[in-house]
Specification:
elongated, TIM Barrel, alpha/beta, 20 strands, 49% helix, Spore Coat Polysaccharide Biosynthesis Protein SpsA, Chain A, single chain, 6-stranded parallel sheet
């Protein structure tokens, strides 16, 4: 697989893996929050029910242990917490007390430094499962997984393993029942001591400082105890305040606060790990940190994307409204009407299926035109087909295959007129297109004009998606860029130029694969205005397969990046070039490169939120973004007088089509960063459009005859769009 294909796949797999890991560590995946109600106790041995808080079922034993008098084993569950655990440790250190922390794997994986501090300061650490499920509901396989993952996190955090375990949702020894006892026996068979408690401070309920101290104090003076507190799971301010009073009070009564094994006079529960076990733990902790970092970057990217999307939509709506209001007001004119003949250039390479419709549509133009078809070394008799049409005012220029920029430059050299219209060999003009396209040249400051490119073959789903993109993403954008005076691209399908503007910038360049973007930026930098003529409609055949669409958009994306890079020095220049560099280039980079690359983050978090929650809020947020897009799309369709029915496929376009465009853009980035070269790619055309721009089999006459002839007795509105199926 080529590197430019392999890297996007690997990148996407890595992002998905990081998100899954993050979801697992944050208990969003595999989390089981069921809690079993109390059950019978007839299968639990009496010595366990009546015994102490330390239960030893190792090697088949059924033994319980009590804490000696004047010893208190403080235990803290559910941590470590980045806010409360350091404060608990500070209080313990200030009062020279030790404790035992029963940590979860999720929190240990995320905050390993706190576990290292526990061990370094002489505290003991026990397991509390990885993500805190009620083990009475779990299989032995799941129990083993919870223990092993908890140990893995502990090894990575502090380089130790432990033999202490506390079940989630446990309390006292006499609360052991027929559901939890088999779990305790199995835990013992895996080499662990199970630790419950004598006194529950109930600090998780936040009952007040006095109540926490009372609950944590043994009923009988001098009696040893295991005391349960929490250093995580919520606001632990009361726990901290109570602890700061509780420790000195009981120390004053002769109590000693020790680790569990110290209190029992047993060897430490902690044992150092080394070799493979240690490195596996460290790798795990590193991966968890990486997943959190990646997620943080993605969340930041999502915020940036949301801001860019909303800013773009806001600008599009505001400035498009301003553009439409200016150009549609009564009496608006670009300047003196342009009536002199113009040259239309049609570069063609193997366009046998399309060229007849293209040239025929031009021959019906309401504006006087010279038509030059530049055959770029076609092998399918494209030139011969044009010559056999015998249409007046049509010339054919042949050349060896040299690419589209060379063909256009050859056409410019043969052009007889000062205004030059350029179109693609698969595009069809309406009779009024050329006339509308050249009117802005009545303003002597205008050097180039962008027309309104339309998708003719929009009946398929992929065609409808491109139709939405053309109307909303391209033409609405062009209205915005027109107002901002930084139009980035004159579309190759329908654009017009002053010969003087082309000559001054050196004609069409072969430096990039987006020669239309390149020439537009060059004309801006030379001081000319570039404007949008919404009534100059042209109908083009859009790709009809995913492969063809991929090929086209890959070339567009990569070519746009090349053009931005080529003209990057404009940022530091003065005058018109500097203005375009400091206004146009940043906008193009943000809205045409960065925002589309980040936009799929919206859908990534949509999928993540639906699967792992919170589903309702996630769907609401995504629907909100979709609603904003739908408003913009509806406004764009209204401006272009397009039927709204195609917007039915907008949600699917956002879910599927945008992901394809994202992968294409990512591949373009990788090609650019790896120094790859991309050849000119010729799309395979089907000739689906006739000379009127409709799919074959539609009525040609109603689309290509002058409007007055079609209406019979009246002129139709200049904004009337011819029907397209």
């Amino acid at each position: 697989m080529p590197l430019r294909h392999l890297l996007p796949v690997l990148f996407l797999c890595a992002v998905v893996a990081m998100l899954m890991l993050r979801g697992y560590v944050h208990s969003e995946i595999m989390a089981d929050r069921r809690i079993r109600p109390e059950a019978a106790t007839d299968k639990v041995p009496e010595q366990i029910l009546d015994g102490g808080p330390v239960i030893d079922t190792r090697d088949g034993k059924r033994k319980s242990l009590r804490i000696p008098d004047r010893r208190i084993v403080l235990t803290f569950d559910d941590g470590p917490d980045p806010v409360w655990t350091p404060r608990v440790l500070d209080v313990l250190k200030r009062h020279h007390a030790h404790a035992t922390f029963f940590v979860t794997g999720t929190m240990t994986s995320r905050y390993p430094a706190l576990v290292r501090r526990m061990v370094a300061e002489g505290h003991e650490v026990g397991l509390h499962t990885f993500n805190h499920p009620d083990l009475s509901y779990q299989s032995k396989t799941r129990i083993d997984w919870e223990l092993s993952q908890n140990q893995l996190a502990l090894a990575g955090a502090a380089g130790v393993r432990t033999s202490l375990f506390r079940p989630p949702y446990s309390s006292f020894a006499n609360a052991m029942d027929d559901k939890s006892w088999p779990v305790t026996e199995y835990i013992g068979s895996r080499g662990y001591l199970t630790v419950v408690n004598d006194d529950d401070s109930e600090d998780w309920q936040r009952p007040g400082i006095e109540k926490i101290i009372a609950n944590a104090t043994p009923e009988k003076p001098g009696e040893g105890a295991v005391v349960l507190m929490h250093d995580s799971g919520g606001n632990r301010a009361q726990t901290l305040a109570a602890l700061d009073r509780y420790l000195p009070e009981l120390q004053g009564r002769g109590y000693e606060f020790t680790n569990l094994t110290e209190a029992l006079g047993a060897p430490s529960a902690l044992a150092p790990v080394s070799g493979t076990e240690l490195w596996k733990g460290r790798a795990w902790v590193w991966l968890v940190a990486a997943s959190d970092s990646v997620t943080g970057v993605l969340v930041t990217g999502l915020a940036v994307t949301g801001s860019l999307v909303l800013a773009r939509f806001g600008l599009m709506l505001l400035l498009s409204f301003a553009h439409a209001r200016r150009t549609r007001r009564r009496g608006f004119a670009w300047g003196v009407p342009v009536t002199e003949p113009v040259t239309v250039l049609v570069p063609a390479y193997n366009e046998a299926k399309c060229v007849t419709a293209t040239v025929t549509s031009l021959s019906r133009s309401e504006h006087p035109v010279e038509i030059i078809v530049i055959d770029d070394g076609s092998t399918d008799d494209t030139a011969g087909i044009v010559e056999r049409l015998g249409l007046p005012g049509v010339r054919v220029v042949r050349q060896e295959n040299a690419g589209k920029p060379a063909a256009l430059n050859r056409g410019i050299a043969h052009a007889s007129h000062d205004i030059i219209v350029m179109m693609d060999g698969d595009t069809v003009f309406e009779p009024a297109t050329v006339r509308e396209l050249v009117q802005p040249f009545g303003d002597p400051r205008v050097g180039a004009v962008a027309g309104n490119a339309k998708v003719g073959n929009r009946d398929s789903l992929i065609g409808a998606w491109q139709h939405i993109e053309y109307v909303m993403g391209f033409n609405l954008d062009r209205r915005m860029y027109d107002v901002l005076r930084c139009m980035p691209t004159i579309p190759g399908a329908v654009g017009a130029f002053r010969r003087d503007a082309l000559t001054r910038v050196g004609g069409m360049s072969e430096d990039t694969l987006a020669e239309d973007t390149d020439i537009t930026m060059a004309i801006h930098r030379d001081g000319w205005r570039v404007v949008y003529a919404e009534k100059a409609r042209a109908w083009t055949e859009a790709p009809e397969s995913v492969a063809q669409l991929w090929s086209q958009r890959y070339r567009w994306s990569y070519g746009t990046m090349q053009a931005i890079w080529k003209h990057r020095h404009a940022v530091l220049e003065r005058g018109a070039s500097g203005r375009f560099g400091r206004v146009g280039l940043p906008l193009v980079s943000l809205f045409m490169v960065l925002a589309p690359l980040l936009a799929p983050l919206i859908d990534v978090f949509l999928l993540y939120g639906i699967v792992f929650g919170p589903t309702g809020r996630t769907l609401l947020a995504w629907l909100g973004v979709l609603a904003v897009q739908a408003v913009c799309a509806a406004y764009a369709f209204r401006l272009d007088k397009e039927p709204m029915r195609h917007l039915v496929s907008l949600p699917l376009q956002q879910l599927l089509y945008r992901q394809l465009m994202y992968v294409v853009l990512l591949q373009s980035w990788i090609t650019a960063l790896t120094g790859g070269r991309l050849r000119w790619q010729k799309l395979r055309r089907t000739g689906v459009l006739d000379a009127g721009g409709t799919p074959r089999g539609k009525d040609l006459a109603e689309l290509t005859e002058p409007r007055a002839a079609r209406s019979g007795t009246r002129e139709t509105d200049e904004n009337e769009r011819r029907p397209v199926a």
